[in-house]
Amino acid sequence: MRPSHRSRAVLAFLLLGACAAPAPEAAPPVDAAAVKDAIQAREREWSAAYLKADGAAIAALYTEDAASIPSSGDWHRGRAAIAQDLQPQFDSVTFTAREDITEEVIPAGPDYVFEVGHYSASGTQKVGGKAHTSSGRYVVLWRKDADGTWRIHRDLGSEAPAKP
Description:
By secondary structure, the protein is of the alpha+beta class. Helices cover 33% and strands 38% of the residues.
């Protein structure tokens, strides 16, 4: 008995299916609470470096190819440019308080997470001694490096009145 065209087609289909690559394993679920804790720890490092006026330490919290978009809207790409952008603030104000509050962490896969939050900072102007305060909102895209360290990949900040 000769196989029909239909039988040959079914056989070919089954053989192709057997040769197909196995389905990729699903990524493990993201532990949002653990990621939020890790992000908040990195934010505390950011604030500590800010209070020390250490732009290089802040820039080290960013990926090599990071970009920061301050409220002026001009991109600052790379660690050196990000540190340089902070310098005028450090040259004009002695900061005594800085707080970053993470409101929401949104996983975007195993190696990326969005953080939404607000910040406040205060200090004294170096010329004239007048009190200085600033506050605002931010969105940060964090990327996990190969060694498991979360680093800022993109950030966007905007000054806004302090949240109560």
